[in-house]
Amino acid sequence: MSDGDDIRLQNAIPALRRYARVLTRDPHQADDLVQDCLERALTRLHQVRGRPDLRPWLFTIAHNLNISHWRRLRRLIPLVETSDAEPMQEAGQIPHLEWKEVADAFNRLSDDHRQVLMLVGVEGLEYATVADILGLPVGTVMSRLSRARTALHQLVDHEERPMLRRVK
Amino acid sequence: MTRPDRPVTEDDLQAWVDDLLSPERLRTVETWLDANPDARARVTAWRTERNLLQAAMDAELRQPVPARFDIARLTQRKARRFSLPQMAASIALALSLGLGSGWMLRDREVPLGLVSVEQEATIVHDASKGSTITQGNVAQLAAWGGRTLGRPVRPPDLSAAGYHLTGGQLVTTDHGPACVFFYKDGSGSRISLFVRPMYGHDMTAPMRPMRHMPGYIWAQDGLGISLVADTPDGDLHRLANHARDLMGGAG
Question: Which of A10, A125, A167, B38 is deepest in the core (most CB within 10 A)?
Fold first, then answer.
């Protein structure tokens, strides 16, 4: 393994952690998933030698691991379910109120909607890449994206209304 | 087929939000949006929300990466251990070998009693490193353990000490079947609890530290038990005592 691959992998970890949090909704479980993902990635790094952006590859591994291991595990062992509304960011990290509104609304979306918004809107990946990660046809990604944006907008809109009234 | 002036679709609107339209197509879509102010309001709101979400979530990228995700360190660790299937095979082999060659035989003879529990627990703890989460059903495992050992074998609830159960595994040893349960705490520290019945030797034995691993070992009510950690931890003795008390209560 070359140092370049190592560095690219290391640099992708913050994005991988963030995606894992979207997948698991729990920071501890997310980091356990990241650990599994990195261990798997290290054994297969030769497959992506020289690829400039390792995110799609890592996200695919994380997505598949999450489906296969973690969902089953969470069903089997209720003890592990510690996902009590731990906020994704510390309040101080989002100084702007608008950010917080959108982030709160995002957290209330379904897993499918959060994933597609994350990969397309936040990571800025192309639709075909997202389709590969999620194992879906591009058409499904597009319709899911449209529904996710509609749902997010409705939640944000709904949350804003009380503020507008106060202004009146 | 992909004429720039073909009718504007929902997909075009998503691509407008994500700035993924070709320049020609963008002109067509912009013209259409000019004629459809409702649609323009909708996609503009989507784009605003997309950018706000991105800004909110980018805060996470600035969080420091924990040391456990240091690639150089992970690579070193990987080099030091076997792959999981190899490992499973080697445990089974090592544990079933009994007399013969192999690394069970550092002590030159198959040990008896608590000494053998210690060796088995060390092997199993090492073997499960990085094995992700075992897929075994812990409830089923405990039930099986109960039937085989003639008493309930429940993994003690160590959550008061910050450790949560992450899985379990049945393993074979050359002294018969054993259960091993895995725990993790919030910082990712891992411990394993190894349980197997004793046969004649050391049916009950006081707790003592293990020799080659950070861990404690004891026997209670005919069960040989060890609690093994990855790294030495000042609280391990207390945790082992806690586990022993809980298991005494369950038995």
Answer: A125
